[in-house]
Amino acid sequence: AYEARGPGPHPTLILLHGFPGNERNLDLAQAMRRAGWNVVFFHYRGAWGSGGDFSFSGALADVLAVAQAISEPEWAQTHRVDADQIAVVGHSMGGFLALAAASRDPKIRCAVSMAGPNLASLIPPGASPALLEQTGMQLEAWANGRLVGATGPALIADLSQHASELDLIELAPGLQGKPILLLGGTSDEVVPPDSIQELKEAYGNAGKDDVEM
Q1: How many CB atoms are located within 10 Å of the residue 126 CB?
Q2: What is the mean pLDDT of the chain?
Q3: Are 52 and 58 in contact (CB under 8 A)?
Q4: Secondary element (H or E) of residue 88
Q5: What are the Cα distances from residue 67, in Å, to 79, 116, 189, 200?
Q6: For the residues of 144-209, what is the DSSP string, one character each?
Q7: Residue 114: which of 205, 213, 12, 14 has the closest Cα?
Q8: Tens of pLDDT along 37-85?
Q9: How much is the pTM?
Q10: Residue 73's CB: how many other CB atoms inside 10 A?
Q11: Distance between CA atoms of residues 175 and 168, nearest Å
């Protein structure tokens, strides 16, 4: 926990790293702390020494658990957290998790997704076994041994079994009334800006008008 100065209580954001988490964006944590925000950072299950096996659905459950934990009266009082002002900010997979968590948890007031993909798009309907195998191999290569249990078949199975809760377009109704910021890079080849624009348009079609890109 990066705690802001002053008696508080302070607005608090949960900072979410990507896949596998080589870049942790802790410079943003320090900048937000100086701006008067508490920042909570953690590793998902199976990531960087945390117990358990990594999965995308498990990471989402972890974000929701952290949001609940920092809202508990004892923790909030000790760390000067304003439990009515909780945000999520994430990069890459963390950006996906920020939007997914905000759609499911009413305690989360707003979300920022930096180059966050819609993970459901990795396994489009009717995807061939060859495509699923290729996607799994790429995910396993990106994990690079840093995530326990993150084999290609396991990750593809997780995406398949939890498709509805990992589809940011389907989750759009849960974001009503919450300001959302989507950020992307014009030279990003992993999460191209077209995919972020597609997400913005989908949110607009769902009647969500407070999305900035």
Answers
A1: 6
A2: 93
A3: yes
A4: strand 81-91
A5: 14, 19, 31, 25
A6: TT-BTT--HHHHHHHHHHTTGGG-TTTTGGGGTTS-EEEE--TT-SSS-HHHHHHHHHHHHHTT--
A7: 213
A8: 999 999 999 999 999 999 999 999 999 999 999 999 999 999 999 999 9
A9: 0.93
A10: 9
A11: 10
